[in-house]
From TrEMBL:
CDD domains: CAP_ED. It comes from Mucilaginibacter celer. Residues 28-110 form the Cyclic nucleotide-binding domain. This is Crp/Fnr family transcriptional regulator. InterPro entries: cNMP-bd_dom, cNMP-bd_dom_sf, RmlC-like_jellyroll.
Length: 194
């Protein structure tokens, strides 16, 4: 479950290992919903294998917000922390192996580990990194054209373009699949031919 933390903070392995028996390992097919929009998030999700997307429904149209891959953890954070209905649906896009840790165990773990020196700095670094990522995405969505956003994906996160179906990428970029095809054709024509 906390494998991504184990690598970054090995001095805390005693705590991570203590909660290994409480995690639930699931092998699931693509298109399996892990959290439904409007439901309260009760699980922290860690992806061992596969890909997960987070999206919301806007008048019957799915708007993709984020993609998560191997060795990444996620939850609908506001829902998880505050016990409020979640704003997002989380579903697998590929056959996946995920680990779930219930909120009560996460809370106990956080209580125990919070006494460790450096814990607060560690959590602040993690949240700052994630917040910076979301801020950059928001700024890009406002500032950049869809073509520039697609080019950013190619340059900085090519695994998304390689693994994610085109209609989800179009949703993520805020364009239609037809518009995305035009962008791809335009970029392909602009490439030098040898």
């Amino acid at each position: 479950m906390f494998f991504h933390f184990k690598d970054q903070f090995p001095h805390l392995n005693l705590y991570w290992d203590k909660y290994l028996p409480h995690q639930k390992r699931l092998e699931m097919p693509a298109k399996t919903v892990l959290l439904e929009e409007g439901k309260i998030s009760q699980q922290y999700i860690f992806i061992e294998k596969g890909c997960v997307r987070m999206f919301f429904n806007s008048n019957g149209d799915e708007k993709t917000v984020q993609f998560f891959f191997e060795n990444e953890g996620l939850t609908s954070l506001e829902s998880f922390v505050n016990g409020t209905p979640g704003a997002f649906t989380v579903e697998t896009l590929e056959p996946s192996i995920v680990y779930l840790l219930h909120k009560k165990h996460v809370n106990r773990l956080m209580d125990e580990i919070s006494h460790e020196p450096g814990f607060l700095k560690m959590m602040l670094r993690i949240f700052a990194r994630r917040q910076m990522h979301y801020n950059n995405e928001l700024i890009s969505f406002i500032r950049d054209t869809p073509e520039q956003r697609y080019q950013n994906l190619l340059n900085n996160r090519p695994h998304i373009v390689q693994r994610i179906p085109q209609h989800y990428i179009a949703s993520y970029l805020g364009v239609s699949t037809v518009h995305l095809s035009r962008i791809k054709n335009k970029l392909a024509k602009g490439k030098p031919h040898f």
